[in-house]
Automatic annotation (TrEMBL):
A molecular function (GO) term: cyclic pyranopterin monophosphate synthase activity
Keyword Iron-sulfur: yes
Coiled coil region boundaries: none
A Pfam family hit: Mob_synth_C
Keywords per UniProt: 4Fe-4S, GTP-binding, Iron, Iron-sulfur, Lyase, Metal-binding, Molybdenum cofactor biosynthesis, Nucleotide-binding, S-adenosyl-L-methionine
Keyword check for Nucleotide-binding: yes
Protein name (database record): GTP 3',8-cyclase
CDD domains to which the protein is assigned, alphabetical: Radical_SAM, Twitch_MoaA
GO terms classed as biological process: Mo-molybdopterin cofactor biosynthetic process
Cofactor: [4Fe-4S] cluster
SUPFAM superfamilies for this protein: Radical SAM enzymes (SSF102114)
Length: 326
C-alpha cells in the first residue's frame, strides 16, 4: 500500500477503547473523559472486517492500543482472530501494565507477538504524580513476568519530560542492561494535554546515557514495526531506542496509520484527516468498496507534520491521545 509520497504503509495502530484505568497528566484530565458510548465503539467483528481489508491492501502489522486496551473485555479473543487472518505478520499490544500480569497467560495463548509497557519513571512518588495512580509495583511485576515468555518481544516506552531527573533516565535505561528488552525514549508530542509539557530531546538523552554507559552504536536493522531507531550499548543485553518525532522528524519513513476506537481511519497523528469507516460499515458497504475507501484515504496521507511550527490550524487534531489512540 503506497501513499502519495510513495511511502509503503504496512502498519496500523488500532485503538480498541478510549477508556483507561490511569490518568496520566499528558494524556487524560484528572477527572477522566466522557467516554464514547459503547454502541459507537467498533465491535470485534467490525475490527476484523477492517483488518481483512487492510491485509488485502498490503498492511500486515497490527498494534492494539487504547486508552488502555486491557480494560476491554476479551481482548485475547480479538488478538486470536486477527492472528488467524492470512497475511498478518505480527500482532502487538501497548499497555500501561497495571493489569497486565493477570492477562499475560491469555495473551500468550492468543498468539501475541510483542508488548510495549509504558513506564516513564522508576520513582514511585513521581510515577504516582504522572499517572495519578499508585501502580508502579503492579507494572514492574508485570514486566518481570513478561520476560519469562521467550517468544514475546518486550519493550518499555518512556516519555521523559524536562523535569525528569537525570538519574531516573539512567535507571530506566538500565532495565535493558541485564535483560533482552528494549527501552525506547519517546519525545513528548504536542497533542492534547501534551501541549502543556516540553519534550526531552533525543540528543540530550543520548548525552546523559553515553556519559553513564559509553558510546552508543547505531543499529541499521529495523527492530520494530514503526519509526523507532535503536542503538547497541556496551555490556547491554537489550537495546536503547528513540522515537523522536520533534527533534529527528521521520515523516519520510512513516509507515503507519491509525484506527480510533469509534472507527475513524486517521492518517497522521497531528491532523484530523481521515475517513469514518464505522458509518460506512454500518451502511453495509461491500468489501470491494471498503478496500477502495481505505486505499484512497491512505493514499492521501499528509506529507509530514509540522509540530515545530508555533501556530494553530483548523486542520490540527484537538482531541487528547486517549481518544485518538496515540
Amino acid at each position: 500500500m503506497k501513499d502519495n509520497c510513495n511511502r509503503n504503509i504496512d502498519y496500523i495502530r488500532i485503538s480498541v477503547t478510549d477508556r483507561c484505568n490511569m490518568r496520566c497528566i499528558y494524556c487524560m484530565p484528572e477527572g477522566g473523559i466522557k467516554p464514547v458510548n459503547h454502541k459507537q465503539i467498533l465491535t470485534y467483528d467490525e475490527i476484523i472486517t477492517i483488518c481483512e481489508s487492510l491485509v488485502r491492501l498490503g498492511i500486515n502489522k497490527v498494534k492494539l492500543t487504547g486508552g488502555e486496551p486491557l480494560v476491554r473485555k476479551n481482548i485475547d479473543i480479538l488478538i486470536d482472530q486477527i492472528k488467524r487472518i492470512d497475511g498478518i505478520k505480527s500482532v502487538t499490544l501497548t499497555t500501561n501494565g497495571r493489569n497486565l500480569k493477570e492477562y499475560l497467560p491469555r495473551l500468550i495463548k492468543a498468539g501475541l507477538d510483542g508488548i510495549n509497557i509504558s513506564l516513564d519513571t522508576l520513582d514511585s512518588k513521581i510515577y504516582e504524580k504522572i499517572t495519578r495512580r499508585d501502580a508502579l509495583k503492579n507494572v514492574l511485576e508485570a514486566l518481570h513476568e513478561s520476560l519469562k515468555y521467550d517468544e514475546l518481544k518486550v519493550k518499555i516506552n518512556c516519555v521523559p519530560m524536562l523535569e525528569t531527573d537525570k538519574e531516573d533516565i539512567i535507571k530506566i535505561a538500565m532495565l535493558a542492561k541485564n535483560s533482552r528488552l528494549s527501552v525506547r525514549f519517546i519525545e513528548m508530542m504536542p497533542i492534547g494535554l501534551g501541549k502543556n509539557y516540553t519534550y526531552f530531546s533525543e540528543d540530550k538523552i543520548i548525552t546523559i546515557l553515553e556519559e553513564a554507559f559509553g558510546h552508543f552504536e547505531a543499529i541499521d536493522d529495523n527492530l520494530g514495526n514503526g519509526p523507532a531507531h535503536y542503538y547497541s550499548v556496551p555490556a547491554f543485553q537489550g537495546k536503547i531506542g528513540f522515537i523522536s518525532a520533534i527533534s529527528h522528524q521521520f515523516c519520510e519513513q512513516c509507515n503507519r496509520v491509525r484506527l480510533t476506537s469509534d472507527g475513524f481511519l486517521k492518517t497522521c497523528l497531528q491532523y484530523k484527516n481521515g475517513t469514518d469507516l464505522k458509518s460506512l460499515l454500518r451502511g453495509n458497504l461491500g468489501d470491494a468498496d471498503l478496500d477502495q475507501v481505505i486505499s484512497d484515504t491512505i493514499y492521501n496521507k499528509p506529507k509530514s507534520h509540522d509540530f515545530n511550527e508555533n501556530h494553530e490550524n483548523e486542520t490540527y487534531e484537538k482531541d487528547n491521545m486517549s481518544k485518538i489512540g496515540g
